[in-house]
Design a protein that fits this description.
about 425 residues; Aspartate Aminotransferase, domain 2; Aspartate Aminotransferase, domain 1; three-stranded antiparallel sheet; about 15% strand
């Protein structure tokens, strides 16, 4: 039995759902006993001649002053030497503590990735191929198609988030019934491009349907916009925490999150993948993730991981993020007021960074007209809509944006979508 087969055997015994959902690539993946693994074992050796990075022979970095002069509060070793495979151990522990909602919920150690997109791709590598039904939200983020469909060959099935202007509570059970043998389900709250987060009552039928899934599934919770919820009656924690204790015979929950939006650190490219599994199953999944990462980007950048860890250890961090969140809340309120005043219909939104505006005209033509007027938005032909990212516009500029938009579209007098 080779290394990959041993990991597969472990998953079959300790997490049957994860084993059943493995793609052909996922079944082949393992973390080889190569240079990174051997270097890790030799970390405490008095003479460590394993890894190909420049040190003074005692583990200290030899980076040039032109690099180190830009470091403040972080040592050259933390910034310029390789980070461990899977991420800085202290950072992984700190992130787990940050996201842990219940000590009883079984979760793995967060695996550090080069942004959330990288995390989604690693999960797709493990679980998606031509035999996988991939359930994606509609409207949903376009890059899901590239990751799960184009790259990994999954059979894309779209489930509706809305029925008109209402959250589609029966959508999940209908979508899950279309899975033939194994599936991957993507949940995204707050949503991109919708900017929508359901209430607990709205989400309850979805969670019930997931727990009763007739086929084994991997539930991927894309939690990129965690924390940016602006209405009190909305859920404030990821569905991952509701599913983390689900039957391992049927469901593997996966949480994808990171510093990008949560810590407002977009250029860091620090993301995490956390499995709703512990013990041998979590260890096996981590080794497969390490294998997938080693075959692509290998380890994530050390400097950004060190900065995120330092921020997590700063007691002022949450207050600083709250202050930023209040700025976005003000923009959200300004945009919603302006849209209502102009009687422009919109898909329901209450969180995240976006709102989606349905239009009667060609959305790309509308985008170009707005661009000529100095207004930048994103067009979505598939949804016949444009997306406004109010996260990147000043609150005082949003009324002008809406006023300009209203000149180019037929205002829908029916308030049904409001």
């Amino acid at each position: 039995m080779n290394s990959a087969e041993k990991l597969n055997d472990t998953l079959e015994r300790h997490h049957p759902a994860a084993h059943a959902c493995l793609s052909q690539r996922g079944r082949r993946l393992f973390f080889p006993m190569g240079i990174p693994a051997q270097a890790g074992q030799a970390k405490e050796a008095s003479i460590n001649a394993t890894i190909g990075q420049l040190t003074d022979g005692a583990g200290h970095a030899m980076a040039p002053a032109a690099i180190c002069q830009h470091l403040e509060g972080i040592t050259p070793e933390e910034a310029t030497l390789y980070a461990p495979q899977g991420g800085n151990k202290a950072l992984r522990a700190a992130w787990k503590e940050r996201i842990q909602q219940s000590e009883a919920a079984p979760t793995s150690s967060p695996f550090c990735t080069v942004g959330l997109t990288h995390g989604l791709k690693l999960v797709a590598d493990l679980f998606v191929d031509e035999d996988t039904e991939v359930l994606l939200p509609e409207p949903g983020w376009g890059n899901y198609d590239l990751i799960f469909g184009t790259s990994c060959g999954g059979n894309i099935i779209r489930y509706p988030v809305f029925d008109g202007h209402h959250f589609r509570q029966d959508a999940m059970r209908l979508a899950l019934s279309k899975i033939k043998t194994k599936g991957v389900l993507v949940l995204n709250f707050p949503g991109n491009p919708t900017g929508y987060t359901p209430s607990a009552d709205e989400l309850r039928p979805w969670l019930e349907a997931i727990r009763e899934s007739p086929k084994p599934i991997v539930v991927v919770c894309d939690d990129a916009y965690t924390g940016f919820v602006y209405e009190e009656d909305r859920i404030t924690q990821s569905p991952f925490h509701d599913l983390a204790g689900c039957n391992p015979e049927k469901i593997l929950p996966v949480k994808i999150d990171g510093a990008t939006k949560e810590l407002v650190f977009f250029g860091a490219r620090v993301g995490f993948v956390t499995f709703g599994a512990t013990g041998p199953a979590a260890d096996a999944l981590e080794l497969k993730m390490k294998g997938a990462a080693r075959a692509s980007v290998s380890s994530a950048p050390a400097i950004s991981q060190s900065i995120v860890l330092s921020a997590l250890q700063n007691p002022a961090l949450d207050a600083q993020i709250d202050k930023i969140r209040n700025v976005i809340l003000h923009r959200y309120e300004a945009l919603k007021t302006a849209l209502d005043t102009a009687n422009i219909a919109y898909f329901p939104f209450n969180s995240g960074f976006f709102t989606l505006i349905p239009v009667q005209c060609d959305p790309e033509e509308l985008r170009l007209k707005l661009l000529k007027d100095g207004i930048g938005v994103v067009s979505f032909a598939r949804f016949n809509a444009i997306r406004i990212a109010y996260s990147s516009a000043r609150a005082e500029d949003l009324p002008l944006l809406v006023e300009t938009l209203s000149k180019h579209i037929s205002v829908d007098k029916d308030p049904a979508l409001h």
